[in-house]
Design the sequence.
């Protein structure tokens, strides 16, 4: 069964390397599906809203990564014993 | 087989041009993936998708028409989107210096050396290139299958002309790919990865929207607008992240 686990892990790794990022994309897609199926959003505007949400998720994830990297580097430089 | 040439010719032309659009869309991504990550894995990915489609068509035949296209678009589009945005995110982080470029080159050199030590060929399996090429070919190929069925179902005996038109479009696109792959080799690797991320994200967004019955303002042409805005967002993120990465010690810029 280990080979099956390895295959599943490989497939998972293809689509996900930051769990929060992937989860945010999926939640946004599910939300958009729900909104469009109930005609809450006009079909003509839905595409733009879909893109805007995805772009915001990308921006937030990239900036969060950059901020975290900087904070970690600053903590390490202030603590030479590490 | 009593097929009027007018009907057959129209079916071939309609199928050819409709399939050409889908094949060119797939070619764009496969070319970028092949140039950026390696041709063999990308081509095997595309060929596997075409073979999978042929097996599905042979096994299901006209029963395929009962599978709702929006479901295929939504599922494959979502996978493409997860894949493309992940790729674009990494390309932005690499371009801004938060993830070093040379890590992947070192990893590639290391695995190539290991393969040679084991007496294997120099080919290293690139699952990312395979999956990207497989996904886009599968998605666009499914579209082509539906085009053939839609055009071929119009009149009896039209399935063959519709198939001929689609195969001709595929051959034209393969020839186009053979012509274009050499000029692409001179484009820097990370630029190509950036482009692939943008393309996959744009196609993924478009197909998910189609699967949700969204009305894109300019139909298929909206893909170009999506490519442009994803590119603009990604390019504007690079200097923002570069500001954060300035002054970081090199050992903190390890790969994810």
Sequence:
């Amino acid at each position: 069964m280990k080979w099956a686990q390895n295959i599943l892990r490989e497939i998972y790794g293809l689509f996900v390397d930051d769990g929060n990022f992937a989860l945010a994309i999926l939640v946004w897609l599910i939300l958009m599906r729900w909104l469009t199926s109930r005609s809450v959003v006009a079909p003509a505007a839905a595409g733009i809203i879909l893109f805007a949400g995805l772009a915001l998720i990308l921006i937030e994830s990239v900036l969060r990564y950059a901020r975290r990297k900087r904070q970690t580097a600053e903590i390490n430089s202030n603590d030479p014993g590490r | 087989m009593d097929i009027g040439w007018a009907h057959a010719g129209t079916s071939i032309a309609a199928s050819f041009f409709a399939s050409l659009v889908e094949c060119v869309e797939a070619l764009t991504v496969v070319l970028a993936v092949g140039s950026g990550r390696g041709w063999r894995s990308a081509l095997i990915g595309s060929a596997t998708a075409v073979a999978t489609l042929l097996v599905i068509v042979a096994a299901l035949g006209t029963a395929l028409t009962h599978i709702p296209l929006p479901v295929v678009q939504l599922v494959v589009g979502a996978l493409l989107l997860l894949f493309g945005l992940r790729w674009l995110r990494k390309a932005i982080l690499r371009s801004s210096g938060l993830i070093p470029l040379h890590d992947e080159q070192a990893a590639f050199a290391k695995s190539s050396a290991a393969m040679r030590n084991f007496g294997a060929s120099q080919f290293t399996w690139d699952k990312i290139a395979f999956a990207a090429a497989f996904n886009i070919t599968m998605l666009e190929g499914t579209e082509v299958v539906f085009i053939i069925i839609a055009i071929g179902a119009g009149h009896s005996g039209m399935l063959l002309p519709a198939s001929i038109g689609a195969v001709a479009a595929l051959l034209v696109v393969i020839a186009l790919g053979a012509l274009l792959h050499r000029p692409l080799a001179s484009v820097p690797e990370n630029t190509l990865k950036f482009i692939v991320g943008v393309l996959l994200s744009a196609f993924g967004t478009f197909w998910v929207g189609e699967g949700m019955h969204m009305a894109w303002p300019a139909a298929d042409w909206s893909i170009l607008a999506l490519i442009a805005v994803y590119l603009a967002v990604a390019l504007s993120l690079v200097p923002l992240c570069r500001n954060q990465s300035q002054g970081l010690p090199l050992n903190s810029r390890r790969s994810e």
Summary: Chain A is about 85% helix and 0% strand.
